Amino acid sequence: MAEEVLSQHEIDALLSAISSGEMDADELKQDDKAKKVKTYDFKRALRFSKDQIRSITRVHENFARLLTTFYSARLRTFVQISVASVDQVPYEEFIRSIPTMTILNTYSLSPLEGKILMEYDPNIAFAMLDRTLGGRGSSVNKINNLTEIETILMTQLFESGMENLKAAWQSIEEVEPVLEEFEVNPQFLQMVSPNETVVVVTLNSTIGETSGMINICIPHVVLEPIISKLSIHYWMQAPVDKQGNETEWRDLSASIQKASIDLKAILGETMIQVEELMKLQEGDVLMLNQPIDRPMDVKVDNQVKFKAQPGKQKNRMAIQIMEEIETGGEEND
């Protein structure tokens, strides 16, 4: 338990009270030995440690940055999204805190159980919709009479942005966000019991000249299977299973071997003027800087890696590797 630090003024007042007899030193000792009782509200049970809350905050700070970039390009206007707060509260308290009519989306995060809820300030949602339809990003709150077309366009906007949530959570768990439900009245949503602890991530959002909040509600049941991965010790612990470590390296090696690279066999190069290029006709001959009896350069990602000679293989043009350049080579001018 952290000790309380007294200011110099409080120390002087305490010494003065003891010196004058107003306070007995023995009584102070007895008070220190007495058990201190702290009231605990079972309706507000704290099921996440500060360390776990910090991990969730880091994940959603990354999500906010990705979402800012995504919607800036999608809406072609100024977008700024950042994490304002991360709290754990009962689900009932969260539902009471949001407006009676608002934009609500529920998502499943397979393979995790349960669903998460994202609540968009209607001003933000309508500003995004207005930009999508070619407007200036004005916000007209008419949530009570959304048309079917507006509902579909909003759903597509929110759904497309969830690829960024998948990317943000990738360091902890591979998840597949899928939009399950679009709602405007929070009273019709009962994802978990009223007393269930949920993590509420609040994002400050600005779309053009319109500002508002985006709230992400994550029930404890969703995070329970990966709760151990939210601890800093999970990232800092040393590998103990050598066999498991070797398997991980094999998987990484296999993934690297499947990566595509750019390979070029340079038959030769030359330089001509634009005027000459414009006058080129069928049958004209260009002289290259590559002697016919000299091996060709083979470049891997623009670095000379091999020497080769041209040929044919089953009626297709081919090259035969003659030499490997260990340290790469100079690019031809």
Automatic annotation (TrEMBL):
It is a peripheral membrane protein. InterPro entries: CheC-like_sf (IPR028976), Flag_FliM (IPR001689), FliN-like_C (IPR001543), SpoA-like_sf (IPR036429). Keywords: Bacterial flagellum, Cell membrane, Cell projection, Chemotaxis, Cilium, Flagellar rotation, Flagellum, Membrane. Residues 256-325 form the Flagellar motor switch protein FliN-like C-terminal domain. It comes from the Bacteria. Its main location: other. Belongs to the FliM family. This is Flagellar motor switch protein FliM. It comes from Terribacillus halophilus.
